[in-house]
């Protein structure tokens, strides 16, 4: 059974003539510290079989961003498969007024530097912001990029 995650892809702006902006997050920790390309993600996290994916996506958003997910209507854009086989289910929500004053992400522990015997805490997310969709294509991890096309199709229909 593949690992399954659920995430929220917030957007604002028009579908045409300019593409919307999307709210994405830079992954935290030393591996991603100096990377930008393919080092950003839709705020998301794993959920277990039987758990409501949208509820999980909302929970994970709050844990990674430090603010509750906006109370907007969410549309299921579908599941997207990573090359590793992991699946991410993405829900899109138009949230033109959403802003955060401060990013407060949950943390994870990692032995750092490697083989040092020392463990350090790092935030799961170290930055989150609105970016133009075209810019997001280069920033997002490859497995999430097809969700941007699904968002454009949805945004064009509303």
Indicate the mean pLDDT: 94
Backbone structural class: alpha+beta
Query: Domains counted in the coordinates: how many?
Result: 1
Number of strands: 9
Cα end-to-end separation: 35 Å
CATH class: Alpha Beta
Described by strand count, sense and barrel closure, the largest sheet is: 7 strands, mixed
The number of helical segments is 3
CATH architecture: Alpha-Beta Complex
Order of helices and strands: EEEEHEEEEEHH
Determine the fraction of residues in helical runs and give it as a percent range. 10-25%
Low-confidence spans: pLDDT under 50, at least 5 residues?
A: none
Query: CATH H level: which superfamily?
Result: Nucleoside Triphosphate Pyrophosphohydrolase
Write down the CATH topology: Nucleoside Triphosphate Pyrophosphohydrolase
- Give the overall shape: globular
């Amino acid at each position: 059974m593949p690992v399954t995650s659920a995430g929220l892809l917030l957007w604002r702006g028009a579908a045409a003539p300019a593409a919307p902006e999307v709210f994405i997050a830079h992954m935290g920790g030393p591996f991603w510290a100096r990377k930008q390309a393919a080092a950003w993600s839709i705020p998301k996290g794993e959920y277990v079989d039987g758990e409501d994916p949208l509820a999980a996506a909302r929970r994970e958003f709050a844990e990674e961003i430090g603010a509750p997910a906006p109370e907007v209507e969410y549309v299921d854009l579908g599941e997207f498969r990573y090359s590793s086989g992991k699946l991410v289910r993405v829900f899109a929500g138009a949230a033109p007024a959403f802003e955060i004053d401060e990013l407060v992400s949950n943390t994870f522990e990692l032995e750092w530097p490697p083989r040092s015997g020392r463990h350090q805490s790092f935030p799961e997310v170290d930055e989150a912001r609105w970016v133009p969709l075209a810019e997001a294509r280069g920033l997002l991890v490859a497995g999430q990029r097809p969700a941007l096309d699904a968002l454009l199709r949805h945004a064009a229909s509303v």
